[in-house]
Design goal:
The complex is a heterodimer. Chain A is mainly α. Chain A has 14 helices and no strands. In chain A, α2 crosses α13, α10 packs antiparallel against α13 and α12 runs antiparallel to α13. The mean pLDDT of chain B is about 80. The chains are: A mainly alpha, B mainly alpha. Chains A and B meet through α1, α3, α4, α5 and α7 of A and α1, α3, α4, α5 and α7 of B.
């Protein structure tokens, strides 16, 4: 910092390390628990790993938890993956072309459409669950991948992000494109799209995490156990009527549910940070 | 706010906008207007008969002690979560900003909880505090305190607040760190030369300069606590025990989907809509002053 105060530096690192431990603590315990047999976890605490790592994870992936309907977690993870990828790709594609239309064209009703999209910002899924549910049912999209992804695809934040970015692209590029006789689609594909690469990457990371972690919506529209996603499927594992809550299997599922988004954040940290900062400003 | 150079094309812009607008209409505007309309009706659970009752649903809602309870609980929940998440995020950001060595490691290690779904975070903390075999619960029992959040409403609230804040600290940390790094070093150096100690420098210079960031994070955290935490409540406490963690967004779900009170749930949705709109407007109006194109 400005002056040299060693005592303060030690405290700084000390508290940070303490913070790290507290933050990571739940994961550590969960992971440890997932490596034990069921009996080891009843009324005792396991400080270190057990030997049932492979066994537990295989059980959970292949046949799920018996008392929770026996849906293999691998099925649930697959559903989650489709949903997350669908939402990510869907949101990015329709937002980028919408932003392009709004920024680079003059047409009647332009501002009207802009405000419609803006309105969407104010309506998170949680405030319109019943009617949206009814619409999905009426369209016959219950228990389908389309039903899981479509209602979540329209995105005001992504559109605004791209719009903001497009506004900073120099006009000379569009002028040059017109001089060379390139139409709007050509301009978009060969010039604008490559320029937007970093923004797309950043958004992709954020949206994948957003899509993967969806809870309320999958909860509402999947009545078929085989269509559940892993993040919402965990909840079913918790409420067991008469048997022992098999914490080791539940924790294994929790770790699996966390894995993809966390890996994405760790591997693509820079894009993740950029995505977070951009979508909120 | 338009480019100087635009393309002239009659049908292409509409085509480009179509997917977004269609989806927005089908899955947002239409259902939202339905919710508004339904809140003015009283229907039987099967939707066979409905009666237009103007604002009776709302009057009933605000006279219902359970609903007012839920508002109070939501307020307590969001304030506690926001305070905890904001202060921890700020603390870590200030410290990480100060730590020259290993800053990248701290950043990476403090950031990843953001990727965890709220429901999963809830499950993790539920396990830690599980009355029968959670490590924290057992530790508390060892010092004589019997933790049981299934029976004790206050403890249930504490549990969900911790789980909710845990996840959100990463987000606040990130923004506070970015905000801190934007403060010019020269200002702080000048203060140090004038004899201000680090602690004083923080409170008189750094903190006021962080106000925009703090305000922005305040709104985001409140929105998070209001809406994104549904997963935590549903997975961990189901609004219990005896409604102690029955936050508004959970109540909408419970009354509408489980209790099948369509009119009442729609009215609650409308109230929530108003709250979101208010928060969004506040956020945008405040931010618009700072953002230049």
């Amino acid at each position: 910092m400005v002056e040299n105060r060693p005592w303060l530096t030690y405290t700084t690192h000390g508290i940070l390390i303490l913070g790290l431990i507290v933050i990571s603590f739940p994961i550590y315990i969960a992971f440890v628990a997932s490596t034990h047999e069921v009996e080891d976890l009843i009324a005792t605490v396991q400080p270190w790993f057990g030997g049932a790592l492979i066994e537990n994870y295989l059980t959970v992936l292949q046949s799920g938890k018996q008392t929770a309907g026996g849906v293999p977690v691998s099925t649930m993870m697959f559903n989650s993956l489709i949903m997350a990828l669908g939402i990510m790709v869907g949101k990015i594609s329709i937002s980028i072309i919408s932003a392009y239309a709004i920024v680079y064209f003059r047409f009647p009703l332009r501002m009207f459409f802009f405000w419609i999209i803006f309105l969407k910002l104010m309506l998170p899924v949680e405030v319109r669950i019943l009617p949206t549910y009814k619409v999905v049912v009426d369209l016959g999209l219950l228990n389908t991948y389309a039903g899981l992804t479509l209602p979540l695809i329209a995105s005001a934040t992504a559109t605004f992000l791209f719009r903001q970015f497009f506004l900073t692209v120099p006009d000379e590029l569009a002028e040059a494109a017109r001089v060379y006789g390139a139409g709007p689609i050509r301009f978009f594909v060969t010039i604008l799209l490559p320029l937007s690469r970093t923004n797309i990457a950043a958004l992709a990371v954020i949206l994948f995490i957003y899509g993967w972690n969806q809870y309320l919506w999958p909860l509402l529209i999947t009545t078929d156990a085989n269509m559940t996603t892993v993040v919402m499927g965990i909840q079913r594992m918790l409420f067991v009527a008469d048997s022992i809550p098999e914490w080791n299997l539940t924790m294994a599922t929790a770790i699996l549910a966390m894995l993809p988004p966390v890996v994405v954040v760790l591997v693509m940290q820079r894009q993740f940070v950029k995505g977070l900062v951009d979508t909120e400003k | 706010m338009q480019k100087r150079v635009t393309f002239r094309n009659l049908w292409l812009p509409y085509l480009l906008l179509a997917p977004q607008v269609i989806i927005t209409f089908i899955f947002f505007l239409w259902p939202a207007s339905q919710a508004l309309f339904q809140s003015l009706l009283v229907e039987d659970p099967f939707g066979l008969r409905s009666e237009f009752v103007w604002f009776d649903n709302f009057k009933e809602l605000f006279a219902d002690p359970l609903y007012l309870d839920s508002m109070l609980i939501t307020a307590v929940f969001s304030i506690s979560t926001t305070l905890l998440a904001l202060s921890s995020g700020l603390l870590f950001a200030v410290l990480a900003n100060r730590a020259v060595k290993g800053a990248a490691i701290y950043k990476g290690a403090l950031l990843w909880p953001y990727a965890v779904a709220p429901a999963v975070a809830g499950v993790l903390w539920l396990f830690l505090f599980s009355p029968a075999n959670g490590i924290v619960a057992l530790a508390l029992r060892a010092v004589g305190y019997e933790w049981n959040h299934v029976l004790n409403g206050g403890e249930a609230m504490l549990l969900v607040v911790i789980a909710a804040a845990w996840k959100q600290i990463a987000y606040n940390f990130l923004f506070f760190l970015a905000g801190l790094q934007m403060i010019p070093k020269s200002v702080l150096e000048a203060a140090a030369i004038d004899g201000a100690r680090p602690f004083m420098r923080f409170w008189t210079i750094v903190f006021p300069l962080l106000t925009p960031t703090t305000f922005f994070l305040l709104v985001v955290n409140v929105v998070y606590a209001f809406f994104d935490t549904f997963g935590i409540i549903h997975a961990v406490t189901s609004g219990g025990p005896a409604g102690a963690t029955n936050i508004l967004v959970y109540k909408v779900y419970a009354d509408g989907f489980v209790g099948l009170d369509l009119g009442g749930s729609a009215a609650q949705s409308v109230v929530l809509m108003v709250i979101v709109v208010a928060l969004t407007v506040v956020q945008f109006r405040y931010l618009e002053r700072r953002v230049q194109y």
